[in-house]
Design goal:
The chain is α+β, with helices and mostly antiparallel strands. It contains four helices and ten strands; from the N terminus they run E-E-E-E-E-E-H-E-H-E-H-H-E-E. The longest helix is centred in the middle third of the chain and has 13 residues, at 132-144. Residues 131-150, 167-183, 286-295 have a biased composition (Basic and acidic residues).
């Protein structure tokens, strides 16, 4: 179990189960009335840490800033809820918790009697001696828990303990569902070079030889008689043709980038919630009658 000196060590830490899985963040440390040693720790559990669960620290071990408990996460999750133990655990509450965790009541490792006081919020240690303000608050709390059976305006009595009121409160768990953003995958752009054949048509032209014969006229007679009478002669003409000339250049054609868009949908969430039911037993041999609002 942990000592009073170790409470500061786990302040703001987490409680983990016997397998090392996180149960929740540490809330408050409760001390035994007689020994003053840590006896219970509250752990914030449930969705968004809205519930506090009591766990005995008899066999707990301090692991850095964390508190390792000898119970599974599921065991702690189903533990009885104590809703009105802001500063003190009464006998009935502690008996119920001891029974759930399989421990014998009144045989704690500290030798205490099972009544425990809270020590600060978030696991911080206060002075071991209660100051006068705490004492007065304890007295007022004890006075609020007195048996009020028979007082004016109080009908009946509580069979489970001292009569504190003329009614009982029905509570139920509400499901608070939120969302968190998690990584589901990654996308990347990659550029690489490929080669492909491009075929295009280019208009071209070329020169061809043709023979042109002109009759002798007065206009060309002089050119015709400028040579010898009978001679051998050659005349040459140079031919030309166009051919395709290919050049390549690199030009930008587009910009490509990655972007994301949010697509909304719906997902069903199923979780068990508990609620209290109230029934009326008239004691006249009839079946117990349930309150019509208990649905």
């Amino acid at each position: 179990m942990i000592s009073t000196e170790q409470i500061q060590t786990i302040s703001g830490g987490n409680a983990v189960d016997s397998e090392g899985a996180k149960i929740g963040s540490i809330g408050q440390i409760y001390l035994d009335d007689q020994s003053g040693q840590p006896e219970w720790v509250t752990v914030k559990t449930g969705l968004f840490g809205t519930s506090e669960t009591f766990i005995p620290v008899r066999d707990a071990e301090v692991d850095g800033n964390d508190l390792r408990l000898p119970y599974s996460k599921d065991k702690v999750k189903d533990a009885p809820r104590v809703s009105d133990a802001d500063e003190h655990l009464d006998v009935e509450q502690e008996q119920k918790l001891y029974e759930y965790y399989g421990l014998a009541y009144g045989t704690s490792s500290t030798g205490g009697n099972g009544h425990d006081d809270v020590v600060g919020g978030r696991g911080t240690v206060q002075d071991g001696v209660q100051d006068s303000d705490h004492e007065h608050e304890r007295e007022r709390e004890h006075d609020d828990r007195r048996d009020r059976a028979g007082e004016p305006g109080v009908v009946g009595r509580d069979s489970s303990g001292p009569t504190t009121d003329d009614a009982m409160t029905r509570s139920e768990e509400r499901l608070n569902v939120g969302t968190e953003k998690v990584e589901t995958g990654r996308a990347r752009l990659r550029k690489y070079v490929v080669t492909e054949n491009v075929t295009t048509t280019v208009p071209v032209s070329h020169e061809e030889v043709r023979v042109v014969r002109e009759p002798i006229t007065e206009a060309n007679r002089g050119d015709a008689l400028s040579g010898g009478d009978l001679t051998e002669e050659e005349h040459e003409v140079t031919l030309h043709a166009e051919q395709p000339v290919v050049q390549k250049e690199t030009v930008p054609v587009e910009r490509v980038k990655l972007d994301t868009e949010t697509v909304s949908g719906e997902q069903e969430v199923t979780e068990q919630v508990r609620k209290e039911q109230i029934e009326t037993d008239t004691g006249e041999g009839n079946e117990p009658r349930r309150d019509i609002n208990n649905r």
